């Protein structure tokens, strides 16, 4: 994939903006199995669409997830992150009662912190490969 194959246009701009996001579970509990991660990806794709943002790559392990997002300049990364974490937490806890047992006190799935990195200086293919190679729990 060439780095500038997916140039997007807005009303008054042309852009290629990517961010690598990492969310960890509250208390770093190891709670995700493949079924949780698969549903989490579906939920996060829907949230990204609402923000006119593309979820380019998604992967995770039992206590964290990695996302590579292509976003427009008008999207505030912090607002995108808040929606991704809030919506996924609420829906995953509703759909998978087994997750609730880990969060009976805090009633939250995700840690309050997150990682957001610009991937402008790294080849996008390298970042995609890194995310693709993250181990998934069995």
TrEMBL record:
InterPro entries: Transposase_17, Transposase_17_sf. It holds the Pfam family Y1_Tnp. Residues 14-134 form the Transposase IS200-like domain. This is IS200/IS605 family transposase. It comes from Streptomyces litchfieldiae. The lineage of its organism: Bacteria, Bacillati, Actinomycetota, Actinomycetes, Kitasatosporales.
